[in-house]
Amino acid sequence: MAAGWNLEGRTAFVTGGSRGLGFAIAQALLDRGAKVAIAARDESAVKAAAGRLTAGSRAENVLPVVADVTDADSVNSVLAEVHAWQGSLDILVNNAGPQLAPSALDKVDEDVIAAAFDTKLIGFLRVAQAALPFLSRTGSGNIVNVVGATAHAVIPNTGPTAIVNAGVVALTSYLATEAAASNIRVNAISPGMTKTEGWLTKTEAMGKQQGKSAEEVRAGMAKGLGIRLDRWAEPAEIGAAAAFLASDDASYVTGQVLRVDGGLSKPVA
User: What is the pTM of this model?
Assistant: First the structure.
């Protein structure tokens, strides 16, 4: 087991767990001893992801499930399945969300915005509502929402993503207040630029267009965005932050947003 926060005996459920940040978070939880259920809409993709996760672990420690977070019946059914798997649920990670194409707000199609709200913001709420009856009341129960740096920093042409992410920040705070009576914590991580599969592919394509390497493209973006650490995050660094919030080391933390963005966002107070 990797060094870090001990999640032995805990059961976690990660939406959007077949790739990207969801996969990295699932890996971090698994490495720290949790049993992890991962969900995605694509059955073959989620089963393949489970195979990659269990390459260094026992297969019975990972449960791949198919779920559509825009469908309440699907969400309710899969939460019951996950709870029945181990007879408990300690950690919910709300991660599933769309990748929106860059667009100015005055040009974006309102249907695109509506779909993004339905998948990410309302999707997070649907999953939380379904999970709350199952989450442990003994102190281990907690929810970690994945937001995004656009909620805190103005980045050109990311307004559509930003307003959805800002909604998730509000959801996190209000849900933390309401869930506290049940001894359940609710927090969020807000990742910045991260070397996920999607971004690696995108920066590779950008590099070909610009006559640069993908690494040069990412370095230029880090400079342009003013990332204090002057680099992109490794997915494992985002996973570690989520694992911290899910652990007992964060037992007195709720209603907070942990910005894991290398200093991209720059709050003064």
Answer: 0.95
Instruction: Name the β-bridge partners of 39.
Output: 15, 65
Closest CA to 144 of 265, 54, 51, 28: 28
**Among the listed residues 120, 200, 102, 104, the one whose alpha carbon sits nearest the alpha carbon of residue 165:** 120
Sign of the Cα torsion 143, 79, 63, 19 reads negative
The single residue listed with the structure tokens 């019951």 is 80
Q: Which residues pair with 182 in a beta bridge?
A: none
Backbone angles phi, psi at 220, to 5 degrees: -65, -40
- DSSP SS3 for 72: helix
Residues 169-202: tens digit of each pLDDT:
999 999 999 999 999 999 999 999 999 999 999 9
Residue 153: its H or E element: none
The C-alpha angle with vertex 255 and arms to 181 and 234, in degrees rounded to 5, equals 135
| Tokens representing residue 149 in the block | 């740096």
What tokens appear for 207 in the block? Answer: 């590099």
* 241: pLDDT strictly greater than 60: yes
Q: How many other β-carbons are positioned within 10 Å of the β-carbon of residue 221?
A: 15
Are the beta carbons of 32 and 7 closer than 8 angstroms? yes
Q: Is 16 helix (H, G, I), strand (E, B) or coil?
A: coil
Which residues does 104 contact at the CB level (< 8 Å), separation at least 6?
A: 157, 159
Residues 6+ apart with CB under 8 A from 23: 17, 38, 49, 52, 53, 235
CB 180 within 8 A of CB 135: no
